[in-house]
Amino acid sequence: MLDYTNQISQRMLQANVALTQIFLLVIYSILMIFISWKLTLVIIIISPFFYFGSQWLIVKIKKNSNAYTEFYAAMSRKLQNVLSCIPLVKVYNNEDGENRDFIRINNITTKLEFGLDKKYYLIFPLQEVIMLFVILLLVSAIAFMAARGKRDLGEFLVYFYVLKKSVTAIGGLNTFRGYISTIDGPISDIMKMFDNKDKFFVSDGSEEFTGLKETIRFNHLKFSYFGNEKMVLENINFSIKNGSLTAIVGETGAGKTTLINLLLRFYDCPPSTILIDNVDIRKFSTKSLMSHMALVSQEGLIFNDTIRNNIVYGLKEKVSDKDLNEAIAKARLSNFINSLPAGLDTVIGDRGVRLSGGEKQRLAIARMLLKPADIIILDEATNALDTQTEKLIEESISELIKSRTAIVIAHRLSTIKNADKIVVIQNKILAEEGTLSELLERKGAFYQYWQAQKFY
Asked: What is the DSSP string of 277-294?
């Protein structure tokens, strides 16, 4: 994208030349009308040849520019995919295959770029041919008028000189059109970022959310990422009480994370399908809503920054060393940080590449512990932890949720045995809900999951 903006900026710098040519063309036209309005009328009649003579070439340049942009983007994606998955490429011994694919895309891109330049540089010779035709036509007209003795030959020579200048100005404008056409593809690609086509926007409410007081209720919630087709959730009905621990379980792809994303307003839900204290969640401002929520996702979102800055990220007030160290201790990160030469000031690399999966999630948990949030959401927050560390984290989370509302998505069912309520999502619908003992007694969907994980 940066390369596209550089291309566009370089082309647009030539706009001052085009403006100069337009100004000169106006002056030349006035002079030509003053000298001979009849000849000027003839020139005006044939002037469309200047435009349409190169228009077909400009259309081809635009088409070529769009094709070049498409393959250039494909080449960039190929590079990004390969460089981000080098271990996968090597394990599957596919270096030669990736190399062949890259060479193929690169050759097509090179040919398109060469074709773009070739068509652009044809504009000027084409303009010269058209200009020669016009001059020959004009010389014939001047010779005819001079033979009849209607005008002085000197005036015709002046007119001829002015016309030559005006034709050059028109040629310059057409060359600029061709120059701009070479960036039609990049401009279209960038403009797609700013249009609203096929994009979904979450509307912001106006009411201030001051914290959860009673319940969060999912009221006949249904949702699809594709309009009304291929529903991800259908008729979801359950509530979460303030101060309770609610676990959401189900098979992969059942819609658990989608449910959380709707609650976090990452996607827009239908009206009155998610209610907080009997108020439609859509009525609350997103900023006030997010200030009362904390998230630990399964990806372990980490910045390429120091451990300290990652833990205190987004906090409005300065965190004391005591509170920071307490959160680190509860997240069981103390030993790890103390073993680092730079301690909390250690830079952990792009997306935390220098940390293990478990260390990333413990860092995210420490960040969550510091945020004064009413609603805590843990989306597979312990999936990268070993059993011993997982038990330690569970203890700290148990302390944390005593005065807060917690929503936990978990595949390891052993981590949710103390939940006040367990909600089972299966085949896009709510299959069952209840406490651990109630669900085990029913021997329904949850019981099947539990039996499959008895070794935990």
From this structure: TTEEGGGB-HHHHHTTEE
The C-alpha atoms of residue 109 and residue 200 are separated, in whole angstroms, by 32
pLDDT score, position 301 = 76
* Four-CA torsion 169, 171, 175, 181, nearest 10 degrees: 100
Phi, psi of 202 (to 5 degrees): -85, 120
Tokens of 105: 């895309």
Q: Is the pLDDT of residue 431 over 80?
A: yes
Cα atoms in the 13 Å half-sphere on the side-chain side of 179: 18
Q: Which of 37, 111, 100 is nearest to 72 (CA)?
A: 111
| Rounded (10°) CA dihedral 441, 447, 451, 454 | -70
The DSSP 8-state label assigned to residue 269 in this structure reads P
User: What's the rounded Cα separation, in Å, for the pair 363 and 50?
Assistant: 67
Three-state DSSP state, 332: coil
Q: Count CB atoms within 10 A of the CB of residue 288.
A: 15
- pTM for the whole thing? 0.65
CA distance linking residue 50 with residue 123, whole number of Å:
11
Under 8 Å CB-to-CB from 298, ≥6 apart: which residues? 257, 379, 380, 381, 383
Pick the residue with more confidence: 338 or 147? 338
pLDDT digits (tens, 9 = 90+) for 311-357: 888 787 788 888 888 888 888 888 888 888 888 888 887 777 777 77
Task: Read off the pLDDT of residues 175-233 as tens digits, 9 standing for 90 and up.
Answer: 777 667 766 667 666 666 666 666 666 778 888 988 888 899 999 998 887 766 678 88
- Using CA atoms, how far residue 208 sits from 72, 279, 281, 288, 444, in Å, is 46, 11, 11, 6, 41
One DSSP character per residue, 236-254 reads: EEEEEETT-EEEEE-STTS
Listed as own residue / partner, the contacts of 68-72 with beta carbons closer than 8 Å and 24 or more positions apart are: 68/109, 68/112, 68/113, 68/116, 68/185, 69/4, 69/185, 69/186, 69/188, 69/189, 70/185, 71/105, 71/108, 71/109, 71/112, 72/109
For residue 76, give every residue at least 6 positions away whose Cβ sits within 8 Å of its Cβ, in sequence order, or none: none
Please count the other Cβ atoms lying within 10 Å of the Cβ belonging to residue 15.
Answer: 12
Q: Identify whether the C-beta of residue 363 lies closer than 8 Å to the C-beta of residue 346.
A: no
